[in-house]
């Protein structure tokens, strides 16, 4: 499974591509950070991110895109920009029928370090070890994008089992509701 990890942002948007092997084996294939000038108009910044992401999607052909889920921060404009960048990326993937999954920062940190409150240095150190990199990925956005991709690789089997269980439960609820309806009709005769 090829996973494109995305740490969305307007000023710096981290992109990564990893391939999952057997077990917890993961290999880094590419990593980059898209930078846009803070004084550029918002539509032009989003377009620049979109252009690079579309090139990545067409070139690398990931099976899935894992994007960091935006959460409440003190700076509303930062949250808005991050959400807008993530939205542009999700749309580009959806146009290509590529599944998109969102992971919270604490899910990513917990998956990679075992601690949902780990700091950036701990995440970067673990990414370097997990991927057997010769040097730490920089800037932090690159390490975060790699962490997102790894998180998804490791969580995907569980997410798949949960989706299957939810589908089975829905099917059983429908069957039970139909059974009750038949019994009600039969009792009313």
From TrEMBL:
CDD domains: RuvC (cd16962). SUPFAM superfamilies: Ribonuclease H-like. Mg(2+) 1 binds at residues 7, 141. Keywords: Cytoplasm, DNA damage, DNA recombination, DNA repair, DNA-binding, Endonuclease, Hydrolase, Magnesium, Metal-binding, Nuclease. The keyword Cell wall biogenesis/degradation does not apply. One of its GO terms (cellular component) is cytoplasm. Its EC number is 3.1.21.10. Mg(2+) 2 binds at residue 68. InterPro entries: RNaseH-like_sf (IPR012337), RNaseH_sf (IPR036397), X-over_junc_endoDNase_Mg_BS (IPR020563), X-over_junc_endoDNase_RuvC (IPR002176). Its cofactor is Mg(2+). Coiled coil: none annotated. It is an enzyme of class 3 (hydrolase). GO terms for molecular function: crossover junction DNA endonuclease activity; DNA binding; magnesium ion binding. It is found in: Cytoplasm. GO terms for biological process: DNA recombination; DNA repair. It catalyses: Endonucleolytic cleavage at a junction such as a reciprocal single-stranded crossover between two homologous DNA duplexes (Holliday junction). Gene3D superfamilies: Ribonuclease H-like superfamily/Ribonuclease H (3.30.420.10). Belongs to the RuvC family. This is Crossover junction endodeoxyribonuclease RuvC. It comes from Mycobacterium rhizamassiliense.
């Amino acid at each position: 499974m090829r996973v494109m990890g995305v740490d969305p942002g307007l000023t710096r948007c981290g992109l990564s591509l990893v391939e999952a092997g057997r077990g917890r084996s993961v290999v880094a294939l590419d990593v980059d950070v898209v930078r846009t000038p803070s004084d550029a108009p918002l539509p032009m910044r989003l377009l620049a991110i979109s252009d690079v992401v579309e090139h990545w999607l067409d070139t690398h052909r990931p099976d899935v895109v894992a994007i960091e889920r935006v959460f409440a921060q003190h700076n509303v404009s930062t949250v808005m920009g991050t959400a807008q960048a993530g939205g542009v990326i999700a749309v580009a993937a959806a146009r290509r029928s590529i599944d998109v999954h969102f992971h919270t920062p604490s899910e990513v940190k917990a998956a990679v370090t075992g601690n949902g409150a780990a700091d950036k240095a701990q995440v970067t150190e673990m990414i370097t070890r997990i991927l057997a990199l010769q040097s730490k990925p920089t800037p932090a956005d690159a390490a975060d994008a790699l962490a997102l991709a790894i998180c998804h690789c490791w969580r995907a089997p569980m997410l798949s089992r949960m989706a299957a269980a939810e589908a089975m439960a829905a099917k059983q609820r429908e069957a039970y509701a139909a059974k009750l309806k038949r019994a009600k009709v039969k009792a009313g005769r």
